[in-house]
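Repro:
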Amino acid sequence: MKTQITLISILFLSIFNLLAQKQQQEVLIVGTMHTVPKIVKKSYKPMLRFAKKYNPEAIFVESPMANDTISWEYLKEGWSKNYQRFYKLSDSLQKNFNFNQTKFNILSTKNLKDLNADEINYLINSYGYKRDNGNYELLSYIKKYGIGGAKKPTRHEDGDLTYKLSINQNLKVTNMDDQQTNDLYHNGWTKCNKEGSKNGSNAIGSEINRKQCNAAKIPAILRKLGKHTNKRASLEGLHTMSSFSYVTEDTEGCLEGRKYWNERNMRMAKNIASQVLESGKTKNIVMVGAAHVIGIEKELKTNYPTLKVILMNEY
């Protein structure tokens, strides 16, 4: 009798653990190359096949959160001309567009393939009104290229990877970027570069960059640039460069740059995790510049242990 009870208990626990594993929320991080050269214009095709096979329930993109007023206060006159234009458009729409929440709720849940031209235009204006840059760009892409997406490579992660995946999955995108201290990061970068010209750090950085470029040449020719970029060694090299961890001396500018780089990754990870946990969705894919992957992975694993964090090449 005791043996039977023990066996039943073990079986029950095994089933419980199996169900718990199946329900564990995943965050799969894909490091992108942003814009690729014309010679390797089809680099995103294998990555798109991989992403479709993963079959995500949510797609996170490197676009500022709509409610992140600190980031938008900087971006309205910041480094990106596209964000400057979007902010002005959004500001105008918030003053002049006749936004209807009920209409938006209906259209935003409609299958992307079933939207007509007027409905697409309404959603474009609505996402602009809501300062949702990621979905404003997604619907603008559909308006321009149709539901099949661009036939020729756009050479950018959005047109060749993210938006085609969104259409395939019938999903809107979820913003997760943070640019609250991006100006301070670039200031630190400039100072670190000046300091590095005197202590030899710039020469070390140039050599690391040269080796990374050389290592990527053959994979790029073989249409494996995405896979190469997402090797842990490649990702760690990009993180080292962007966080100024290669320097011979931690000067004032380099320390500032590293501080703001790490803080941005921390806030991006928080934006991802908070939305994943709130949604309850199991399979979540993050499209982000490859230099951010290691930092975001570390923050997610450290601060959100209930999430299963996976890198593209380790899936």
